[in-house]
Amino acid sequence: MFKLVLSDVKLFKNSFEAISSIVDEVVCVIDSEGFRVTAMDRSHIVFCGLDLKPTVFDEFECTVPDKITIDTDEFMKILKRAKGNDTLTLSSDEGNVIIKFTGDVDREFKIRLIDIEYESPQPPALNPPVSVEVPSDLVNECLKDMALFSEKVYFMVDENYFKAITDGEFGDAEAAYLHGENILEVVKSCYSVPKLQEMFKASKFSDIVEIALGNDMPLTLKFKLVSDDGEMSFLLAPRLEQDE
Amino acid sequence: MFKLVLSDVKLFKNSFEAISSIVDEVVCVIDSEGFRVTAMDRSHIVFCGLDLKPTVFDEFECTVPDKITIDTDEFMKILKRAKGNDTLTLSSDEGNVIIKFTGDVDREFKIRLIDIEYESPQPPALNPPVSVEVPSDLVNECLKDMALFSEKVYFMVDENYFKAITDGEFGDAEAAYLHGENILEVVKSCYSVPKLQEMFKASKFSDIVEIALGNDMPLTLKFKLVSDDGEMSFLLAPRLEQDE
Amino acid sequence: MFKLVLSDVKLFKNSFEAISSIVDEVVCVIDSEGFRVTAMDRSHIVFCGLDLKPTVFDEFECTVPDKITIDTDEFMKILKRAKGNDTLTLSSDEGNVIIKFTGDVDREFKIRLIDIEYESPQPPALNPPVSVEVPSDLVNECLKDMALFSEKVYFMVDENYFKAITDGEFGDAEAAYLHGENILEVVKSCYSVPKLQEMFKASKFSDIVEIALGNDMPLTLKFKLVSDDGEMSFLLAPRLEQDE
Questions:
Q1: Residues from B in contact with A at Cβ < 8 Å
Q2: Each residue of A11-28: b (16+ CB within 10 Å) or e?
Q3: A81-90, C208-217, C235-244: which has the minimum mean pLDDT?
Q4: Helix, strand, or coil (residue A229)
Q5: How many domains would you assign to chain B?
Q6: Scanning A154, A242, B109, C213, which has the fewest C-beta atoms within 10 Å of its C-beta?
Q7: CATH number reported for the structural domain that contains residue A34 in this entry
Q8: Does residue B159 share a domain with residue B108?
């Protein structure tokens, strides 16, 4: 049993927009440490985690730890109906998750909980050698550039730049962002553009994304709330294509 | 023969947007009392009436009462081409209705009148026991909420609230609006969500809608101009579904 | 070899939006007189010319005259990715045209040049007896009006008005614009509405369009930059339909 009140509905909207494009059903864990989601897509290429501390919420009541499994599309449909100034209240009864929007009108939605209890997947431990911070919107836009030419993109970090590079049959594209960090090595990996675009649906979650990678290793993305009590993270397996 | 001049084109746009989604062809009556349309949809579930007094218009000339039958889709296509600051002039010749927009450019459109003269349907007399006023935009939004789950919605009025309630296979929704009126009974009827959405295309006609209903009886909607010289009204037959 | 720098990316965007809807591949000539494109559509109904003097550009380097053939769709795809405050740098290497956007991020795109060198078509010499200036946006809107009823439109100029007239099976439309010029004759020609709409994709190029025509002769459209160092022009063959 739990009751969460959140005046910033957009936070849930933005997170679940990314989550619902990655997985169909998801386990949400609510306990004294907050509201958490971990999910792995079917092909085991993308791992996604949402971690919201109790302080993110205007009200956070949870006496007994709870686990609910929801259909992410159905949940997203409801979240999309929120108005900008609505307050969200999340709770559950026997068989439903209850989503309440309080504003000019009081609106209450119930959607059926899913009976299956999945294991919450755990992210693999990674130690990417290089990490840079980039405005999330810039990366988002770059991905649209890259998508014009190819389904794969090389992410590369060198002493000065974070680069996204693609070469397609009809053209090439390259974007370079001066990262301003003290980096001494050059790393490069190849990733799927459509998968990255799904993950960057969370780009509204925070203005800055922390990008960590190595040579031919998984990509780690971290979107952190300014207040530091909420985080959305992703792992993405590299594509096997070799640089020619 | 008539000539109507209206500087608020939106008034016609908003009314005919609803009318054209309910009926394909409609009889407009123009006489010394104003411009009137009454229409019943094919399945006889929705009745719709538009009543604009001469004072709504900047100019209203009508020496001999006239009746014209128009294709609502064709008429709507033209109205959509109006700019915000255009003045509308409506008249007719032998076989056409003439729609003129005066602004930076003068534009004149003619669409063929339809030769068949339909009877103007009369609304059935109803005496709904309960009536409340609700911001029309709120109801409009509620209908979108309800449409997520079901094709039918229960409208209910009790001492304090006007409520819209739906329960679908995958979820439920309920919206409650504190009506602030002196109502002593509880009434409830079930209506078609898509039909209501067609009717609420007229919601821009006025900010407030008067909703009158009873138990399992037709719904009456009235959108009134603030100036009180124009009104758009609807009747909607209840659905037979019983509350379980 | 050339290098063109342009801070007003929109200029290229607007021009190539029209060009790409008329031809698939186009020859661009760059020499000491500027950047020029001339193109004729496959059916030889539309001729289109773009002429940008060196002064339009922030930087214009071209030591040896150059000719490049590009795929207009591919080029347009890249131009669409420009942000409002990006600076465009255009150059070429052996086999590619290089499009660089400089802003918060540096982005560089290469698209393959086309190996075939087409002849640059020359516009036929015309001497239209009548010419008027009309706000390009007004004509653009008129064409949408006309498109409701028919695929052909009569452009007519008389002593007072520039008129667009169409009569379709279901209705007629007429738009009149008071041109305020000293014109003593009446001319009229019939043109294709869809072709005109393609050409008016360039309407954002300048606020005013110069329209020149005669009786049953080709239409000349000229969009000129305010600074007078750039121009986009079109010729459109008349339709053979006779006025009834």
A1: 135, 138, 141-142, 144-145, 148, 170-177
A2: bbbbbbbbbbbbbebbbb
A3: C235-244
A4: coil
A5: 2
A6: A242
A7: 3.10.150.10
A8: no
